[in-house]
Amino acid sequence: MRGVADDFVLQAEGLSKTFAGFVAVNQVHLNVRRGTIHALIGPNGAGKTTCFNLLTKFLQPSGGKITYEGRDITRLQPADVARLGMVRSFQISAVFPHLTALENVRVALQKARGNSFDFWRPRRVLDHLNDRALALLDEVGLTHYANATAVEMPYGRKRALEIATTLALDPQLLLLDEPLAGMGQEDIDHTAELIRRVVKGRTILMVEHNLRVVASLSDTITVLTRGKVLAEGPYAEIAQNADVKTAYIGAGHG
Q1: Which of 73, 97, 159, 254 has the greatest count of CB atoms below 10 A from its CB?
Q2: Tens of pLDDT along 51-69?
Q3: Coarse DSSP helix, strand, coil percentages of the chain, rounded to the nearest 5 percent
Q4: Are 36 and 25 in contact (CB under 8 A)?
Q5: How crowded is residue 39: how many other Cβ atoms within 10 Å of its Cβ?
Q6: Which CATH architecture has domain 1-85+171-254?
Q7: What sections of 90-184 are H helices per DSSP?
């Protein structure tokens, strides 16, 4: 019989980070449930970006423990956790600007297969990856952009391409760093719907400022303020929390 801990993909216990005496993250406990969308939010200076960097191993914690699928990953490097199926996207789009959408996804698929990159070999050696690459582009709504170079694509579609390249690594846990940053309303709606679709069979942890989208997408929301967990639960519960209202009114949405 599965234990309660088996329901959680990612867990943090007493997670802390200090910079030259300043406590940026203070004894954070977090449980990300399998197959859900979990949002990490908070006003400016709340410590959510630092916490996200700790969870994704781009910073080493000053204290506490992080487990992924029951395995202690506290001291692992980002590449190590990516190999375990925990993959992060970044706030700034990270695709090859002068490759086509199809070529970008094929590069990611090369990484997923665990072999060396084929940059200097004839393109035909990658033809066997085309079907999977095209399927991933279709999954994120980019079929018509397959032969467009990334630099030519609208910003929102470029972010969708980044998600496609992330999916090519076959992650079990997808970590999204402000996936809607810098988008107009049309792109926000498109990307939110994309996130809703790709969660099937996966788990998503995201940092996001757009509370309207967080409310519509998230199963669970963790609110940070001053480096500590202020509240956690579904949006309906969080929205009625007096401490959360005070934190946002006092510090702005950030």
Answers
A1: 159
A2: 999 999 999 999 999 999 9
A3: 40, 25, 35
A4: no
A5: 25
A6: 3-Layer(aba) Sandwich (3.40)
A7: 101-113, 130-139, 155-167
